[in-house]
Amino acid sequence: MAVPTRRMSRGNTRHRRSTWRAEAPDLVHVRDPDGRTVRVPRRLARAVERGLLRRE
């Protein structure tokens, strides 16, 4: 495991951490087997279409 040779300053640490942000998934409209249109993340669209995942 890599170990830093010098201590990173508090300002640099906080700046590095603040630049990373989680992004909201892009939602797509999908018609489920019941005929309803629901918005789900793109990676779950096929499961909803096939009825493997229920959106209540």
From TrEMBL:
Q: What InterPro entries does the record point to?
A: Ribosomal_bL32, Ribosomal_zn-bd
SUPFAM superfamilies per UniProt:
Zn-binding ribosomal proteins
NCBIfam families the UniProt entry points to: rpmF_bact (TIGR01031)
Listed A to Z, the keywords are: Ribonucleoprotein, Ribosomal protein
Q: Which GO terms describe its cellular component?
A: ribosome
- Recorded family membership: Belongs to the bacterial ribosomal protein bL32 family.
What is this protein's record name?
Large ribosomal subunit protein bL32
The domain of life for this entry's organism is Bacteria
Q: Where is the composition biased (Basic residues)?
A: 7-19
Lineage, uppermost ranks: Bacteria, Bacillati, Actinomycetota, Actinomycetes, Micrococcales
Segment Disordered: which positions?
1-22
Q: Where are the transmembrane segments?
A: none
